[in-house]
């Protein structure tokens, strides 16, 4: 043993002895996560990042050091043996994204870890253990062959409305000895369900996550030790179509991608108690059939299930499969194999319907009381061969019949054929619907259907809800609830635009700012990190980025506002989750896009290419999504150039963060030149109006810092005048302008105007939707009167920065701009006449944040919670700091509170972690 190793071992031993000699602090370490996932299986990050939270009752809790142990077995971890990594005592406050720096991690390695910390309140005990496992890191680790049936069967239909039955595959095998560990790795395309010995593996649905399968395919990993046994075993996999065998075959193939027939690659690796190993893998010894109960499954058109075709025991050992076919070896899809590092979808909630009403012809209309995305589970009893048909819609006609014109040609119909006998329960496997109402026909005679016969199954990505917010304004509360339902409806392994019609595409422009607002309601970090990978894979070699990614539709429109979402989502992940890695990973691709746009669409110092304008500017006509009045539509070159300026600014920040000083200087120079050309072209220096003086035309350069200092006040006043005078206090921006509207008004001293927009209940407004029965957010401001082809009742793109404003400006919950990932909070609520209280909470990446304020006639109260290992700068509405009390004491002398300065009518303090109760009289 070398002297260095001896000294290192002695130092570690001394540290451990010293640690144990201290009394553990009353501090808890909780929410241990690897790559922000809880105990993930089968990851492919070879240097994964570890995170934890600190909590304690005392104020001012700060971490000063940490020690992480990673072991190859639970026993070694329990014995404090970090054979994979012992970080030793690291002097650092970092508790989020601590990068593993131990032994090289190889395929299949199982890792068990724990952490302890030194804090301002003393050392902690070891945390409870957590774990992760490595996936298959090398292509050669995959031992199986791709199997499937590369053809349709006689009962299938491959015309435009594709009707392709599910494929079933099975394999029996022997486990000759007691099993110590068994792990399943599976790529089932388009969608799969995995069964072992007759039991379904996992709770995921509609797995795996969708990708452009020619670029990358996701695999899932499961610990299946408890499902196998010594002796005979069986594995069964059902394959659905998903986005692989596309919903519209042979329809505009130049536009819509399809990837072939469903196919499967999987292996189960078994380690026996004596250490020997075995692999059960897909090959041509498997058996398969397409003549099972799922007769068709199509995301747009629905699923048909014939219970009379069920095959009891098909995924169990001993099943008679003589009639089954030999599985065929098929070509692999072409995309790289990638571990799925974001959550699969899951049934996240079950709703009971609120009413059921009869219609003529033996039909019934079921009302769920809520527009949702998922499916209906039914319970029915009748004779074999009877069929119950379920047809879905968001709204009803005046006659009470379904309104389906806005679904375009999506048939959205499920059909269940009864097997007869006892009461049967069924729900689909490989489709989802966006709906509130269901038309039921073919119900067995003898008894009318009742509410107890149906459940609404709410399906979206298995991510926790992180935020809650209520105010004294009922309209704001209803719109917030509608936004919550709309967002969860459109998380489908990727962020889609709508869940109901024949579209459901991941449009980039819908999430430019929306992803940021959504992050306060849901922990969407893994979903959007995955989506950035989708965008990266969709980028052309020349730098062009599509408007839809994954590029299921080949829409390369070469505009700025939609592809620019690539940068704004990366910025969101850095700002909200402290994820610097996404900046490093995607920097070169983002830079290549900027260069491509500049080289191909520059003229007179401006970027000229715009495709969509300020999408959905009110008042929309019945036929158009835009106003017919040209005075309300914003110049496309202004939109493109100002947005490009903002992209340069983001890239300048990314470059500075990544230490690319030369690049940052280059972006600064480009911004200066573009700003000069922009103001020469669009700014009327007499009136301080940009272009034709729309709110968006003035708001974008003001928000992006392009307006000369001497003109800022007047430009802002033009915006206010447009809203309050010309539009009588109503919104007049589309998707682009609304991304900056609420924050722009509030941060420049007119929160009253922002509150007016948020609380309106007449057209055009978010409240108008709620007042007209919406339970989600519409695609259009006039969604109840618009052209049926463009009036989805479940969209999120018009939210703009509303949710950001609610959390950051109303509640005052914001990560300080120079301390991403909530290392430090900037808590600056904006009490406004007409709003008497706001209660909000947010489970940040570092812990729970709360803000609850109440405004009374002569008293302002504000209760806050700051998570452990975090500080907050709090801005309290008080003309003098002496007027501020905290828990009954002068705030400036209260424990954990430090007075910083007076800013106008706000007293500014710094506080550490803990609970605080401020009062201003």
From TrEMBL:
Superkingdom, taxonomy of origin: Bacteria
Gene3D superfamilies: 1.50.10.10, Galactose-binding domain-like (2.60.120.260), Immunoglobulins (2.60.40.10), Maltose phosphorylase, domain 3 (2.60.420.10)
Protein name: alpha-L-rhamnosidase
Bacterial alpha-L-rhamnosidase N-terminal domain ranges (all copies): 177-349
Source species: Hymenobacter lucidus
Signal sequence, renumbered to the chain: 1-20
This protein's record includes keyword Hydrolase: yes
UniProt-recorded Gene Ontology molecular function terms: hydrolase activity
Assigned keywords, A-Z: Hydrolase, Signal
Pfam families membership: Bac_rhamnosid, Bac_rhamnosid6H, Bac_rhamnosid_C, Bac_rhamnosid_N, Ig_Rha78A_N
EC number(s) reported in the record: 3.2.1.40
Domain Alpha-L-rhamnosidase six-hairpin glycosidase: 465-810
Listed PANTHER family: ALPHA-RHAMNOSIDASE (EUROFUNG) (PTHR33307), ALPHA-RHAMNOSIDASE (EUROFUNG)-RELATED (PTHR33307:SF6)
Domain Alpha-L-rhamnosidase C-terminal: 812-889
Residue ranges of domain Alpha-L-rhamnosidase concanavalin-like in the record: 360-460
Reactions it catalyzes: Hydrolysis of terminal non-reducing alpha-L-rhamnose residues in alpha-L-rhamnosides
């Amino acid at each position: 043993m070398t002297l260095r190793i001896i000294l290192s071992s002695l130092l570690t031993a001394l540290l451990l002895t010293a640690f144990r000699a201290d009394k553990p602090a009353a501090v808890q370490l909780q929410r241990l996560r690897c790559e922000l996932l809880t105990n993930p299986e089968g990851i492919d990050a070879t240097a994964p990042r570890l995170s934890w939270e600190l909590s304690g009752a005392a104020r001012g809790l700060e971490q000063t050091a940490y020690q992480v142990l990673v072991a190859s077995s639970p026993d070694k971890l329990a014995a404090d043996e970090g054979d994979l990594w012992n970080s030793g005592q690291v002097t650092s406050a970092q508790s989020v994204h601590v990068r593993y720096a131990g032994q090289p991690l190889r395929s299949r390695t199982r890792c068990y870890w724990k952490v302890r910390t030194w804090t301002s309140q003393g050392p902690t005990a070891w945390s409870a253990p957590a774990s992760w496992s490595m996936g298959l890191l090398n292509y050669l680790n995959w031992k199986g062959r791709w199997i499937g049936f590369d053809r349709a069967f006689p009962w299938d239909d491959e015309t435009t409305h594709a009707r392709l039955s599910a494929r079933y595959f099975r394999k029996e095998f022997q486990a000759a000895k007691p099993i110590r560990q068994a792990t399943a790795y599976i790529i089932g395309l388009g969608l799969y369900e995995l069964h072992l010995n007759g039991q379904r593996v996992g709770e995921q649905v509609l797995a795996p996550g969708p990708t452009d399968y020619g670029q990358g395919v996701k695999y899932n990993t499961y610990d299946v030790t408890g499902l196998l046994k010594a002796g005979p075993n069986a594995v069964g996999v059902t394959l659905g179509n998903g986005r692989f065998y596309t919903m519209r075959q042979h329809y505009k193939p130049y536009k819509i991608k399809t990837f072939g027939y469903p196919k499967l690659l999987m292996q189960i690796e078994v380690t026996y108690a004596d250490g020997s190993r075995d692999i059960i893998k897909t090959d041509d010894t498997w058996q398969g059939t397409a003549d099972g109960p799922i007769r068709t499954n199509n995301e747009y058109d629905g699923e048909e299930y014939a219970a009379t075709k069920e095959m009891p025991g098909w995924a169990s050992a001993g099943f008679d499969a003589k009639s089954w076919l030999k599985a065929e070896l098929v070509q692999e899809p072409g995309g790289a194999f990638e571990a799925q590092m974001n959550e699969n979808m899951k049934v996240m909630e079950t709703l009971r319907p609120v009413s059921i009403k009869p219609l003529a012809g033996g039909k019934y209309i079921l009302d769920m009381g809520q527009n949702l995305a998922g499916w209906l589970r039914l319970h029915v009893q009748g004779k074999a061969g009877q069929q119950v048909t379920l047809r879905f819609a968001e709204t009803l006609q005046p006659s009470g019949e379904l309104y389906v014109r806005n679904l375009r040609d999506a048939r959205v119909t499920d059909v269940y054929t009864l097997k007869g006998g006892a009461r049967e329960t069924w729900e689909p496997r490989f489709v989802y619907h966006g709906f509130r109402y269901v038309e039921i026909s073919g119900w067995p005679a003898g008894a009318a259907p009742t509410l107890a016969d149906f459940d609404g199954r709410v399906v979206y990505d298995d991510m926790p809800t992180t935020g809650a917010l209520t105010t004294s304004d009922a309209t704001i509360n209803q719109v917030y609830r509608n936004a919550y339902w709309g967002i969860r409806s459109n998380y489908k392994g990727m962020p889609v635009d709508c869940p109901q019609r024949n579209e459901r595409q991941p449009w980039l422009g819908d999430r430019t700012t929306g992803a940021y607002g959504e992050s306060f309601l849901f922990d969407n970090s893994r979903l959007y990190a995955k989506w950035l990978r989708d965008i990266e894979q969709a980028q052309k070699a020349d730098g062009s980025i599509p408007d839809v990614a994954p590029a299921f539709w080949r829409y390369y429109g070469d505009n700025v506002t939609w592809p620019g979402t690539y940068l704004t989502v990366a910025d969101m992940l850095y700002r909200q989750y402290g994820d610097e890695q996404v900046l490093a990973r995607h920097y070169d691709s983002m830079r290549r896009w900027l260069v491509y746009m500049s080289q191909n669409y520059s003229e007179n110092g401006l970027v000229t290419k715009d495709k969509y304008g300020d999408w959905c500017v009110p008042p929309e006509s019945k036929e158009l999504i835009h106003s017919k009045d040209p005075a309300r539509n914003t110049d496309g070159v202004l939109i493109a150039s100002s947005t490009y300026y903002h992209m340069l600014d983001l890239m300048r920040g990314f470059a500075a963060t990544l230490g690319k000083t030369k690049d940052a200087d280059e972006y600064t120079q480009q911004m200066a030149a573009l700003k000069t050309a922009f103001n020469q072209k669009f700014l009327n220096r007499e009136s301080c109006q940009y272009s034709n003086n729309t709110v968006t035309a003035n708001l974008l350069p003001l928000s992006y810092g392009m307006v000369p200092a001497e003109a800022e006040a007047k430009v802002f006043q033009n915006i206010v005048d447009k809203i309050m005078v010309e539009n009588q206090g109503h919104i007049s921006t589309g998707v682009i302008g609304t991304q900056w509207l609420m924050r722009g008004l509030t941060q420049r001293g007119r929160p009253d105007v922002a509150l007016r927009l948020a609380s309106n209940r007449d057209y055009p407004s978010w409240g108008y939707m709620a007042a007209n029965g919406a339970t989600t957010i519409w695609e259009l401001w006039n969604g109840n009167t618009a052209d049926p082809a463009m009036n989805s009742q479940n969209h999120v793109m018009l939210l703009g920065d509303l949710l950001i404003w609610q959390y950051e400006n109303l509640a005052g919950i914001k990560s300080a701009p120079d301390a991403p990932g909530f290392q430090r909070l900037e808590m600056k609520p904006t009490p406004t006449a007409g709003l008497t209280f706001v209660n909000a909470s947010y489970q940040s990446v570092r812990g729970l944040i709360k803000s609850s304020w109440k405004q009374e006639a002569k008293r302002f109260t504000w209760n806050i919670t700051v998570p452990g290992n975090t500080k907050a700068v709090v801005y309290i509405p008080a003309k003098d700091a002496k007027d501020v009390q905290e828990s009954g004491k002068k705030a400036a002398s209260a424990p954990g509170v430090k007075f910083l300065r007076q800013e106008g009518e706000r007293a500014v303090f710094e506080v550490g972690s803990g609970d605080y109760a401020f009062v201003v009289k």
